[in-house]
Amino acid sequence: MNKALRKAVIAGNWKMNKTPAEAKELLEGILPLVKDAGCDVIACVPFVDLQTALEVTRGTNVKIGAENCHWEKSGAYTGEISAEMLTAMGVEYVIIGHSERRTYFGETDVTVQKRVRAALDAGLTVILCVGEYLEQREQGITDELVAMQTKIALGGVSKEELSRVIIAYEPVWAIGTGRTATAQQANEVCAVIRATLAGLYGKDAADATTVQYGGSMNAGNAAELLAQPDVDGGLIGGASLKPADFAKIVSAATEG
């Protein structure tokens, strides 16, 4: 991390977990443990938990995000939620392009770009996910693939708007598998993302952009990962559902 240039951000991605009552209990467990965090702390929760999460965290240092949004403001899109619906609730962040959305629900680079555009237009801050599958890493095309995903997703995004974009590098082979990229591997790809941003927006904008690592970061490996110069935080899956573990990651980001 380089806190002199950019924010450190730890964001939990709860995925499809927790009823509203369970969300309240989990957040009440997390809040006192992270109240003195020296980094930004976000909880991205299922749609049904958003109202509860916003109420529980009101007046605290924990911000709330959604896990996805649609690119249209309204229309015949059964089961979808618009960015405007999120901002109307008071939601500030949204994850877009998560590997599970790409793998299981047909998200493409094109639809990710449309969602990014809609979220920024609605005033949200985007946590944009990019990353490669194991076979793509073994083929040696990680750098090209991640750079391409980044460029397409940010199509039409201005330098000013980039200040409302956080990028999360998520090697798909390390999502929910228990496998984690080494600290060196994580830093190398985060550096590729930053170099891509520098080519698009200039070095100053790239240096100011938070690039997280999002592949099975946990309480045990967070400090090593966050010690890398181009890893500015984490998008945390399973560990975000355990208050003590999540707090340890926030602590590592605070101390790093």
Task: Describe the overall structure.
The chain has 256 residues and is an alpha/beta fold. The protein has a single domain, classed as TIM Barrel (Alpha-Beta Barrel). Helix content is 43%, strand content 14%. The longest helix has 19 residues, at 183-201. It is globular, with a radius of gyration of 17 Å.
Named CATH topology: TIM Barrel
* Number of separate helices: 11
Gyration radius, in Å: 17 Å
Strand content: 5-15%
User: Helix share of residues?
Assistant: 40-55%
Query: Low-confidence parts, pLDDT < 50 over ≥5 residues?
Result: none
Q: What strand order characterises the main sheet?
A: 7-6-5-4-3-2-1-8
* Beta strand count: 8
Order of helices and strands: EHEHEHEHHEHHEHHEHEH
What is the H level of CATH, i.e. the homologous superfamily? Aldolase class I
Any guess at the CATH architecture? Answer: Alpha-Beta Barrel
Brief account:
This protein has 256 residues and is α/β, with parallel strands linked by helices. The protein contains eleven helices and eight strands. Helices cover 43% and strands 14% of the residues.
List keywords for this structure.
eight-stranded parallel beta sheet, 8 strands, 11 helices, TIM Barrel, alpha/beta, 256 residues
Strands, helices and their partners?
Blueprint: E1 9-13, H1 20-34, E2 40-44, H2 50-57, E3 62-66, H3 83-89, E4 93-96, H4 99-104, H5 109-121, E5 125-130, H6 134-138, H7 142-153, E6 165-169, H8 183-201, H9 203-208, E7 211-213, H10 222-226, E8 233-236, H11 243-255
Parallel strand pairs: 1-2, 1-8, 2-3, 3-4, 4-5, 5-6, 6-7
Helix pairs in contact: 1-2, 1-11, 7-8
